[in-house]
Amino acid sequence: MVTTATLPKVELARTGKQLSRLALGGFHQLEISTEIVERVVDRYLEYGGNYIETARGYGNGASEEKLGRVLSGRRGDVVLATKSGSRDAEGMKRDLDASLTALQTDHIEFYYLHGVGSTEDLERLQADDGALGVLLRAKEEGVIDGIGLSSHRPWVYLEAIRNLPISLILIWDNYLEEQYLPIIHEEIYPLARQRGVGITAMKPLADGFLYRSPREALRYALGSGSDLLVCGMNSVEHVDQAAEAICAGPATQAERDEILRTAVELGSYVCRQCGECPASLMRLFRLEGYHDRQMIDYLEHDPADYALRLRLAGWFSLADHAKNEFLDSGMDSDALLAESEAVECPYGIDVRRKARLACTKLSGEDPNRV
């Protein structure tokens, strides 16, 4: 196949980098051989793609090593980003040196503080012997151009954008998670824009949960407010599929509405936060999203889909946070169930059944016993 489309580019906030709106993620390079990685990268570059990101934690550097071999001799064709989960200076220095070696380069455009999970993490990073100081020195020395941050905790992004000298964030965004994480678009994105922080969005297919609707998922995510999408692609066919969707442009508002109405993955269980329910019920369903991404619905599924749901439901480890917020809020299960009786959901959701399941999950009971 000869590629004729060219990926659109965008200037990433105040970084001055012109990046393709489709980025190649490095995690899924662990699933394929270096030879296939090379074919994937070749096709991505043919479309005009120029941003590749990976991490030390992806196979203990294996993804970096594969990409380093594949990019040998054409390092100048791409902007590279990688990440370290180290929180102290010694670990970060070791990881940065290892990344440079594995990627066969003396310069990495963006180096991320990876998977920052708490306020305590942020404090540790900023301590006198913390990892942030290593990256600031590397930036002064020209080894890196900017510092990024990734997390699975929305509140961490807000604190980091306000207090850390970061150039960009990597945050998850797709039409499943948007239904219970309005904080991303109502607070995180506006704050990042205000502070000149670039926004790169990962997981446009929700860790593979939206595999039946890749074109719709990518076009929906493209129009949700980020600068670009980081997509894990482990075959040439995946690159073709993703590039075609991105080149087609973001979904219109009418198309977004239709995607939410017909999405097989959301079905007749995932709350679309449409406003037909009282605010208390919509909050309950948002907390259920934190608990298990609204994936465990006790409805009929084929075995492969059921196995995927079990694997992905606890991906972000936010169940305890959801339970604590539910208990601390003083929300009353009986009152919520009573409210649910009066709701006629335009998406065909049995609201009373969903409210009962959500209250059971969040109160710590076992839905299998109810």
What attributes characterize this protein structure?
370 residues; alpha/beta; TIM Barrel; 2 domains; 8-stranded parallel barrel; two-stranded antiparallel ribbon; 15 helices; 13% strand; globular
Detailed description of the structure:
The chain is α/β, with parallel strands linked by helices. The protein has 2 domains: 9-260, Alpha-Beta Barrel (TIM Barrel); 279-369, no CATH class. The protein is built from 15 helices and 10 strands. It has helices spanning 34-46, 62-71, 89-102, 119-126, 131-140, 154-163, 182-195, 214-222, 236-248, 253-262, 279-292, 303-312, 319-329, 333-340, 351-362; strands at residues 9-11, 18-20, 22-25, 51-53, 79-84, 108-113, 144-150, 168-172, 198-202, 228-232. The chain has an 8-stranded parallel beta barrel, surrounded by 6 helices. Helix 1 (34-46) packs parallel to helix 9 and helix 8 (214-222) crosses helix 9.
Radius of gyration from the alpha-carbon trace, in angstroms: 21 Å
Structural class: alpha/beta
* Global outline: globular
Helix fraction bin: 40-55%
CATH topology of the largest domain: TIM Barrel
Largest sheet: 8 strands, parallel, barrel
Strand order of the largest sheet: 3-4-5-6-7-8-9-10
- The CATH superfamily of the largest domain is identified as NADP-dependent oxidoreductase domain
The rounded distance between the terminal residues' Cα atoms is 54 Å
Number of strands: 10
